[in-house]
């Protein structure tokens, strides 16, 4: 039952008939979701490699950039701004504290609040982080003319709230 005809039918399912345009079943059946997945995976891999050269893990650079806008930010506010869980931000900040990039201090007005402060080594690293993200932005959009870039951002702005809603629903019990 695994003869040439069966293989030919299988090949038809994963090809557009033009050489070099083979697509997988997931990409064929779920093109938008797969496009988002593939872009995010590639983007993260490039960012991870470039950030690793700076001694950072993905996501830590976002903390540095966020703190550059205003120091002494509550950990909870950082988690909200970066759209990560409290557990994720806590682990991230702990690792960054060990690296000497940030420190947590108790709020002078509410001792229950932990405020995250950018330290000088973190400030120094910011210039390289911004350069890394600028290079990543350039590599990501190099084949987009201004109109295509605007259209891409508009489409992403429409898709993101739906994904945020779905993510919220996925984490709700029941």
What does this entry look like structurally?
The protein has about 170 residues and is mostly helical. A 3-stranded antiparallel beta sheet has the order 1-3-2. Helix 3 packs across helix 7 and helix 5 (about 75-80) crosses helix 6 (about 85-100). It has a domain at about 25-135: Winged helix-like DNA-binding domain superfamily/Winged helix DNA-binding domain (Arc Repressor Mutant, subunit A), CATH 1.10.10. The N and C termini lie far apart (about 45 Å). The chain is globular and about 55 Å long. Helices cover about 65% and strands about 5% of the residues.
Order of helices and strands: HHHHEHHEEHH
Major sheet size, sense and barrel closure: 3 strands, antiparallel
Q: Percentage of helical residues?
A: 55-70%
- Give the rounded overall mean pLDDT: 86
Low-confidence stretches: 6-15
Radius of gyration: 22 Å
Q: What best-fitting shape do the alpha-carbon axes yield?
A: globular
β-strand percent reads 5-15%
Could you tell me the CATH topology label of the domain at 27-137.
Answer: Arc Repressor Mutant, subunit A
CATH class designation of the domain at 27-137: Mainly Alpha
Please give the order of strands in the largest beta sheet: 1-3-2
How is the secondary structure organized here?
Elements (H helix, E strand, L loop, with lengths): L3 H10 L11 H5 L1 H22 L7 H9 L4 E2 H8 L3 H13 L3 E5 L7 E5 L1 H22 L4 H25 L4
Antiparallel strand pairs: 1-3, 2-3
């Amino acid at each position: 039952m695994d003869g040439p005809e069966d293989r030919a039918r299988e090949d038809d399912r994963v090809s557009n008939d033009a050489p070099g345009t083979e697509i997988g079943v997931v990409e064929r059946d779920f093109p938008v979701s797969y496009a988002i997945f593939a872009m995010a995976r590639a983007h993260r891999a490039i960012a991870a490699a470039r950030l690793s050269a700076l001694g950072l893990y993905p996501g830590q650079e976002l903390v540095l950039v966020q703190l550059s806008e205003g120091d002494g930010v509550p950990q909870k506010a950082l988690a909200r701004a970066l759209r990560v869980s409290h557990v994720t931000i806590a682990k991230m900040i702990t690792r960054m504290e060990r690296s000497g990039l940030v420190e947590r201090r108790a709020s002078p007005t509410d001792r229950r609040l932990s405020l995250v402060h950018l330290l000088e080594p973190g400030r120094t690293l910011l210039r390289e982080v911004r350069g890394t993200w600028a290079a990543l932005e350039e590599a990501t959009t190099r084949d987009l003319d201004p109109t295509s870039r605007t259209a891409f951002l508009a489409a992403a702005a429409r898709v993101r709230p739906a994904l945020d809603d779905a993510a919220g629903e996925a984490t709700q019990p029941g």
